[in-house]
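Posting this for the archive.
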Amino acid sequence: MKKELVLLFVISFVIMISSCSLISKVGKKDTGVLSKDATTKESAKKVTEAEEKPESGLIGPGGCKDRECEQYCQQNPIECQNWCNENPELCSKMLGTAGHEPIPRGISQEECQQNPQKCLEFCEKNPRVCPEEHLKNLRSGMGGLTDIMSIIGPGGCRGPACQQFCQQNMKECQDWCSENPDELFCKLLSGEMMPMPIGGFPGVTEGVVKPPQTIISFAKSVSFHDNAFTKEDITKAKELGANMVTIWPARFIKNNEVTFSPERLGPFINFAHQNGLQVELRSSFGGESINNYEKFKANALKHVADFAKFAEKYKVYRIVPFGEIDNDMLNYCNKITEFSKELLIEMRKHYSGQIGVGVVGSWRDCGYNFKGYDYLTFSAYPQRHRGIDNWLTPNLNVNAESDDALNLAFLTKWARGVADRSNILILHIGETGVVNPDDFKRADASSYAEGDKEKEAEYYQKLFEQVSSKINGISVFYNSLSNYFSIYGDPAEKVVKEWYSKLGPGIEIKEDTTKLIVANPIDLSQVVRISKFRSCAGHDYSGFNINWEKEPISSMKHYIIANKQLIGARDTVKIFAPFDGKITEVRESDGKQIFISANKDPKWNFIFFHTSPLSDIQVGTTVKAGQLIGQGYMREWDSFDIAFKQFSFKGEIFDSPFMHMSNEVLKEYELRGVTIKNVIIPKEFRDNNSCPIRGIIDGEEAFTGETEKDDFVTLK
């Protein structure tokens, strides 16, 4: 971002986020700050107190008396607020609000997540509704509204004004915090206090969700600043037509060094992946005021290494750790080529995805080259002295030194030229937007063209008209919790949605060549339970695993349990070919066993037990993935079985078919609550927990069924 320095912690966000984080933490301990239970208990307490409290004879707003007043004020809040302003002492005695607005009807946990500032204000005005511990934390310097608004920072700045001050005076802020490390402002700035993402995300994620199997051909992205997002924002981003989200992780200043601590963003990335959205991590490092190049480079190399490691861990699709490298390297333009190459080498050590670099201005072009990078982004912000209209008037016949070089058409042409000389094919608009009256006041807002919401919509319409055919992607700010160039809820939102629709999906489905099972082998609509791999259900069906280790006695297949009402019914639970293959064997066995070998790897066979195959399903028949081949045989039982087995000269190998399913197939099961994690019992567990045996039946150990509740996954 233009003139963005290391300080990215927007205090106005912190106000909201810190409060919500505390509410969430306290809620876990106290069964929810404003949960239904807590509210119910509190309401009951109020009733009891009201019954025990004698009538005072005091007359309140609208002529209400004593206990009547709370109900009256819930229905007439404005009248009561005016009355309280005129009668603060009586208001305090009767309503306990000390001049604030009367006690509202209540506020839900969901409302707190969506609007934390409102939630905090509610708790401050209505202490009887919120646990005492919560209010104590708020008032003790742990992120309460009053504390943040009243903090005095470097240069005498107060509250949110410190954001602007520190953007312009980074060194002074660093030095001040070195002398005042215990100040709340410095704890937030250093990352010692790290507000968690709001919107229902926990602070630390468990596990990593695999990204969608897509390749971005035209990036239709929405940007979220650090913590300013909710689950609803992500869902709405998909509704907007986005195929990618761009996250701006913050960095923190401590001991004059920059640290990168983004783990709290893991749940956000996971949720985006669950919703079929790819993720880009984007950042600006901040080097304008750095006068020691070697120290700056050392910090930058560490930063991109941490950036890359985190991105690799969470399977992020793209990263651009230097979103405006010419701005960040303002004092070292002649070193940009060399510098960017060193950064790339370091990132490639840790990250396997696409790596991008960003530029902001043609007037700073000193011939740098970004050969080796996968994509290039450029910033496109209308400038105040040009105005929106002039800035959008196509003008290609200018030079880089001219003011007209700020023109969008010229800027796009220039950025494409930088990409061409760097042998980069992919060009994105990484940042763009118009300052409108609802945007927060940036330190450098005076440099941006200002317009109303209609002008903002007009801007996006013309932008897409002029350059969408000349670029390979664009990112727009779209979060509900920040007005930072955001189009959320503005007329521009409709414009972007229409254009995102016109541009098509912008993705290609990446074929998962590593997985054999590419079609769901069973119709899940009539299935109620599935037994786990290595369960103690039924009888022994075990042997070697894929590592040629002898497994303990267990069931290394899956029983498919249908609704009991289907016993005796025919043609109900359909079965399908899981891959392109050939029928290698059909056996009689309470119905029939069907063996299908995979064309891609014939040594692997998918086996259906106790089925009724179609008449044309015979040995030697070729089948296509997803082809109907029969039904489960449920004339006497409510189940049939599936297994995945490898036949080789060494012997038979057993594995769970879930380990060989494509992501698309796994998603069908995940929607019903079945995952690899809960449908496969680890070998280590079975090694230490033998299956109880009731005897030998037909030459196989039959299990007692004592562990049935642990042997099955019940489908949603």
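The radius of gyration is 31 Å. The longest strand covers residues 604-613.
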